[in-house]
Amino acid sequence: MRSRRVDVREWGPLILLTLAVLAGAGLWFAGRRGAADLVWAAVTLVALAPAVWTTLRQLWRRQFGVDVIAVLALAGALLVGEYLAGAVIAVMVATGRALEEYAQRRATRDLRALLERAPRQARRRTPDGRIEVVPLDRVAVGDRLVVGPGDVVPVDGTVEEPATLDESVVTGESQLVTRAAGEQVASGVVNAGAGFGLRAGKSAAESTYAGIVRLAEEATARKAPMVRLADRYAAAFVPFTLVLAGLAWLLSGEFLRAVAVLVVATPCPLLLATPIAIVSGLSRVARRGVLVRDGGSLELLGRARTLLLDKTGTLTAGRPRAAETVVAPGGDRDELLRLAASVEQLSPHVLAAALVRQARDQGLPLAEPAEVTEEPGRGVTGRVDGRLVRVGQLAGEPPEWAHRIRERAELAGRSTVWVSDEHGPLGAILLEDPVRPDARRTVRRLREAGLDRLVMVTGDRPRTAHQVAQTVGVDDVIAQCSPGEKVARVKAESGRAVTVMVGDGVNDAPALAEAHVGVAMGATGATASADVADAVLTVDRLDRLADAVEIARYARRIAVQSATVGMALAVVAMVVAAAGGLPPVAGAFLQEGIDVLVILNALRALGGGLRRREVPPHTRELLDRYAGQHGDIRDVLARLRDTADLVAIRPTAPECVPALREVHRRLVDEVLPHEAAEERQLYPALAGPLGSEEATSTMSRAHVEISRLVDRIGGHLAAHPDGLLRPDEVPDLLAALYGLDAVLRLHLAQEEEDYFSLSPAEDRPDTR
User: In which domain of life is the source organism classified (predicted)?
Assistant: First the structure.
């Protein structure tokens, strides 16, 4: 009920003015024309007083806008006794003001809705098994909470049993999402199923939802007026109008003609079309999971030409992932990962979380560690099944095979976590911060939307930064960039064009504040960056930024188009009025007809503008299904690479051919059926979203090459029933093994970037 009362109050002045004009019309048709004129004159005065005050205040601030024409038209209508014309102008001006104020309020309406539904308390399990209700600020990391049906998840944490969640309010995803036990969940989403347990991973103040709420509070309290597109037309249009009105009066000697010119010159197309188009854009980007602070920011986003992006957390996932497990000669990769993850279960370090997550994704049974100690900066030590295991840095002089691992990690830009026992190193786990699957597609869409310069700024090493930049396709990259240097770079780029900066960390906050439009990755980023940003991505998907840019550019184009057409028609009417062919009353109603035209055109901003095609639900299901299978395919790939290395180093070893037979079996039983099913089901379903069947033709060709290389490996095995390899066939076998490894890795990466990123499913489990 409160929102309804607010609406009546906000739109009350316009409603009262409209009713007064209609009442005057009733009096006029009843023959009481004097009373009608009094009512219309009163309406004109009511509109004139605040318009004069606003105009004087703008002039005092050395601001010059199109409002001055409305003031002169209202005053002129009173002076010449054209009260009906003045009343019609008053209604039009009030409509423009109401819509413009609504645009300002609409910019933060979604944020206020988040604020109103923020949880204030949580249900916490006590050590004796009871459930107590506590204030949200008393929830600590590690607390076990209960989230009931329909409850808002109070803090970021890990679900302890399967949960069905409605994430639409925070992410914009309309479909329910199921989270398995052990998966992370962000605060602010709604429990759409049965109650479940939640292990708090962050305090309330540090959680995702709290950052968005702080943004809402700041944006709601913000009082800066929206930058209006209309005022940029004032410099040329207002002097032209005044000169034309003055000439009409001077040449004809009739002040009425000057008033008629001012009436039809009333800038209602600007005052109406601009806020309607901007409101439409704000509403649409909010539904896409992008919260923009105000219409001025959306308008700037629509004019942007340069985009600067941070790397970590923006173009990359922002959290490490176990990319490869390398073991000592004769070691077991699964056992190495199990030992490391078992020891790291109690460590709060981000690298520990990556190892534990990787082991659980592979279904490895983790043991409870004992005698766990952690030395900051060096690693964790503990006993697993009675065996002393150390995870972290490598102590002492490494063996020869460990040197090769170090070189391999350095070339690939990966971090190395060593796993050792009492006798020495057992192997290493190579960690990486993977490029977001949708990053390259998003960069292409941003270019199509009109951003002609994309720059990556990062504090990371040059080798890693250039690898990411080459992958996503940006124009320039600045590595080892401090926060101060980021600010300087933003200033330099902002001097040449409207600039957007995207980041997620605390170190990005100064650069976000300096850019024309700062965009924070609010779903995963630091609250400091969200607090200073002009827009926040509430969903962890970079492609929503491309959506926002396209919508903003389309909304601004519609606004400019509506304003230009409306003002062109007004200029024609002004010339006719100056010649005496259009009296003020007729001009007022003609102006209203022009207003209706531009409003209808501005409403087009409610749809269209997006280049991305919507993916049908059935196709999304296929994308999610095959994306989920990529984890198993990559496990086969790891075995393939290990087998290729074994053949390259020890081709005469007795375990060589058995390893080949096992990897070939998995290729035939797991990889080839996956590729064949994609060819039959997924690729035909993608023809619509991608535009044609030809879009998947190169990927189909990769399927053929994968099948050919698997057959080639099988041919070598069929020729050797005795289990021995001849030296002369090793080069060809290696070519097939390493070739298949390269082709398959590239094929998976292309599918994930070009196809799987089409599905808007949030936080899909990492498949790479």
Answer: Bacteria
Q: How many whole angstroms separate alpha carbon 511 and alpha carbon 507?
A: 8
Q: Cα(293)–Cα(295) distance, rounded to whole angstroms?
A: 7
Check: CB of residue 290 under 8 Å from CB of residue 436: no
Give the C-alpha distances (Å, rounded to integers) separating 390 from 386, 419, 493: 13, 6, 48
The string of pLDDT tens digits covering residues 58-75 is 777 766 666 677 787 788
CA distance 482 to 477: 14
Structure confidence by residue, pLDDT tens digits, 116-135 = 667 778 889 888 878 888 88
- Report how far residue 309's alpha carbon sits from residue 763's, in angstroms, rounded to the nearest whole number: 21
The set of residues, in sequence order, having a beta carbon less than 8 Å from that of 613 and lying 6+ positions away, is 688, 689, 690, 691
Nearest to 274 by CA among 226, 219, 238: 226
DSSP for 222-275, written as a single string: --PPPPPHHHHTHHHHHHHHHHHHHHHHHHH--HHHHHHHHHHH--HHHHHHHH
The proportion of the chain whose per-residue pLDDT surpasses 90, expressed as a percent, equals: 8
Backbone φ and ψ for 244, nearest 5 degrees, come out as -65, -40
- Top CATH class of 119-211 equals mainly beta
DSSP type of residue 151: P
pLDDT of 228 > 70? The answer is no
**Is residue 186 a contact partner of residue 209, using CB atoms and an 8 Å limit?**
yes
What's the gap between Cα 203 and its chain centre?
24
Can you tell me the distance from the alpha carbon of 338 to that of 443, in angstroms, rounded to the nearest whole number? 38
CA angle 598, 604, 606 (to 5 degrees): 125
Contacts of 418 (CB under 8 A, 6+ apart): 379, 390, 391, 392, 393, 394, 402, 425, 427, 428
The SS3 of residue 748 is helix
Which token pair is 728?
């002369």
Question: d(Cα 522, Cα 513) in Å, to the nearest integer?
Answer: 15
In this prediction the pTM is 0.66
Per-residue pLDDT band for 235 (boundaries 50, 70, 90) equals low
CATH topology of domain 617-758: Four Helix Bundle (Hemerythrin (Met), subunit A) (1.20.120)
Look at residues 147, 286, 284 and name the one whose alpha carbon lies nearest to residue 212.
Answer: 286
Q: Where are the domains of the chain?
A: 2-114+221-282+552-606, 119-211, 321-432, 617-758
Given the residues 156, 310, 531, 763, the one annotated as active site: 310
Instruction: Specify the 3-state DSSP secondary structure of 308.
Output: strand
Lowest mean per-residue pLDDT among 34-43, 151-160, 537-546: 537-546
Number of H helices, E strands in the chain: 28, 22
The rounded mean pLDDT for the chain is 79
**Structure-token pair, residue 237:** 């249009």
- What tokens were used for 449? 């939307």
Q: Is 310 a catalytic residue?
A: yes
Q: What is the mean pLDDT of residues 46-64?
A: 76
Homologous superfamily assigned to 321-432: Calcium-transporting ATPase, cytoplasmic domain N (3.40.1110.10)
